[in-house]
Amino acid sequence: MKKIYLSTLLAFAVLAGYAQEKHFDLYMYDLKMVNPAFTGRDSAQIFNTFINYTSFESSNASTAMISYENRLSSISSGIGLLAYHYQSGPHSQIGVRLPYSYYSTVAKGVLTIGAMINYKKHAIDTDAFRTIDPDDPVLNPENNIPSIDAFDLDFGLVYQLKNTQLGLTVANLLEPEFNFGNNAIIQKQNRTLILSLTKYFQLTDGMKALPMIHYFSDFSSVGVDINTILEIKKVILLGAGYQILQSRDNNLHFSGGVNIKSTIQLIIKAYSKKYQDLNSANNVEANLSIRLKN
Question: Signal peptide position in this chain (predicted)?
Answer without folding.
Answer: 1-19
